[in-house]
Amino acid sequence: MRNAKDNDLADRRTAAADAKAALLRGYQATKEAAEPTRLARQAERLAVATARDERHQERDRIKLEELARQKEQERIQAEAAEYQKAANVAARAQAEAQEKTDSMIARVISDEATRKAERDQRYANRKARR
After folding, report:
1. What is the pLDDT at residue 5?
2. d(CA 114, CA 32)
């Protein structure tokens, strides 16, 4: 059964405004009731995001440390290789110098032996003439 009274524009506007206000009050009531759980979810999301950022930072720090350690290791290996190369050059130079010295000593000994042989020959010739 329809309302017996006449619905004019003002009544309809008032009814619509009242319905809107009731909906708004109902929404706010449910929003206020859900507020603690929303805040808890938001805090949980924030904690998860913070933990994720910390893990990313830790991972990046570890990668940087590993990269620095690897570069240091490469530098040490390059330095060791250069030192080894210098040591090989020095050893080769020393061996050549030793060989040269040995050659010079052998030549002096050889010359000395030749002079002694000549001297002995002269002495033997002198003895033979007498």
Report:
1. 63
2. 121
